[in-house]
Give the backbone structure.
Amino acid sequence: MPQGPSRRATRTIPNPNPNRNSNLNPDPDPDPNPNPDPDPNPNPKPEQARDAEAERAAAAEAARRQTASQLNATGAALEASKAQLKLQIKESAEIVGNLDDAFERAQDKAGRMERLLQQQQEEARKAQKARDAAVEQAAQSEAEVAAAAAEAEAARAEMAEAVANAKEEAAAALAAKDAATEWAALAEAAEQEAAAAKEEMRDAVARAQAEADPNPNPNPSPDPNPNP
């Protein structure tokens, strides 16, 4: 059996390779110096601490990169949603403008129809007067006056129906305008929520970076006196 370590040394010499079993693998050429110089770094704890700190730093860097990648993807999605919302708001504004134009045209048409109806009513009253005068003047003109009154009545009914239709169209256009205005307000609120979500994501990344780097000095100085 090979001999164990020399007992002539006044202190135990640490093995520079702790994973090596000196009893199973003896040195075929023993050192002629029975008292070799001690290992200048017999305590590997600072190196292990540096390795652990490097591992933690690498894990923090990987987490930071993953969070940054997620933030970039989320930012791109938010920008795309923002652009889509702006496009929808623009389209809504165009729809509202078109509805305003249609409503104004409907109002103009209703005004013209109402003036035309008043004119027809005035003409009907004049025809009625002419009829009365014609009845007084001559019985043979009664048929012509009745025909004129019938035509005036038909025209009045037609104008009244046209005015009613114009009013319904104006009411429908106003309702469509209100709906489009409400939709535009909802789209603007969605854009504000998207901006708030982006700001929250930035705050989360900042907190993650702060939590991932708890030790501001990753390379502490080794103990100047490892063997007290």
In short: The chain has a mean pLDDT of 76. The radius of gyration is 49 Å. The chain is about 70% helix and 0% strand.
